[in-house]
Amino acid sequence: MEVVIVDHPEQVMADIIANAVKGGATTIGLATGSSPLATYTELIRRHNEEGLSFKGVNAVLLDEYVGLPTTHPESYARFIRDNFTDHIDIGDVHSPDGMAPDSKAAAQAYDALIGQVGPVDVQILGIGSNGHIGFNEPSSSLTSRTRIKTLTEKTRRDNARFFDDDLDQVPMHVITQGLGTISDARHLALVATGEGKADAVAAAVEGPLSASCPASILQWHPTATIVVDPAAAGKL
Ligand code: GLP
């Protein structure tokens, strides 16, 4: 695992994605949340100003809230369109179906789809303040596949800022790629900024490889990069 501490993590992350795409990547894995936003802004800039093309590339999302239609501003399918994929020349963008009548079957179908369009060449990741990746909360099986999860209250409180600070509006359930599914990607690239992530980053990098910190799976992945700013690196 390589840890990069830098003032502008989005530049390093954008380099990783741009190099993968220029090198022939056909599938990239996208994450939502605020952490990768600056990376997406930088990639859109390179697309507009430097001709970086995503032609021939498809994308898969990590996760989705159960019960939010894709038109809802906080659905992850909508979020990624608004903040990234509608602004570049990428191909298909896949995400779990959070509105399927049978969420379990939808999760299994999504895992199978990733198997078909994958392997993911490079997977972007953020990290939750409790060490989750995707929506794999602490105690998630290290070999888990895409499935339904119940969010912890901590994560729902963290994400309430996107729902008018109203905890009741934050869905309880999600469909998320499992830790095993995520680990199938050829390269994992995690970005974290700010001192609020310092404990989670320290646990992921220097703590034991353990389900109590799902992001610690990056320790056993052959090609993992953690890109952090000095504040997020503060407890390393
Ligand atoms: C959500 C997402 C994760 C993301 C995390 C951190 O829980 N499912 O993919 O990494 O939030 O979000 P943020 O980057 O906004 O701190």
Q: Provide the succession of SSEs.
A: EHEHEEHEHEEHEHEHE
By CATH, the architecture is named 3-Layer(aba) Sandwich
What number is the mean pLDDT? 97
* Distinct helical segment count: 7
Radius of gyration, whole Å: 16 Å
Number of strands: 10
Q: Enumerate the strands of the largest sheet in spatial order, edge to edge or round the barrel.
A: 1-10-9-6-2-3-5
Total discrete domains: 1
State the helical fraction. Answer: 25-40%
- Characterize the overall form: globular
**Which residue ranges are poorly predicted, with pLDDT under 50 across at least 5 consecutive positions?**
none
Amount of beta strand: 15-25%
Derived structural class: alpha/beta
**Bound molecule kinds, no repeats:** 2-amino-2-deoxy-6-O-phosphono-alpha-D-glucopyranose
EC number: 3.5.99.6
GO cellular component, one term: cytoplasm
Domain Glucosamine/galactosamine-6-phosphate isomerase: 13-219
GO biological process, one term: carbohydrate metabolic process
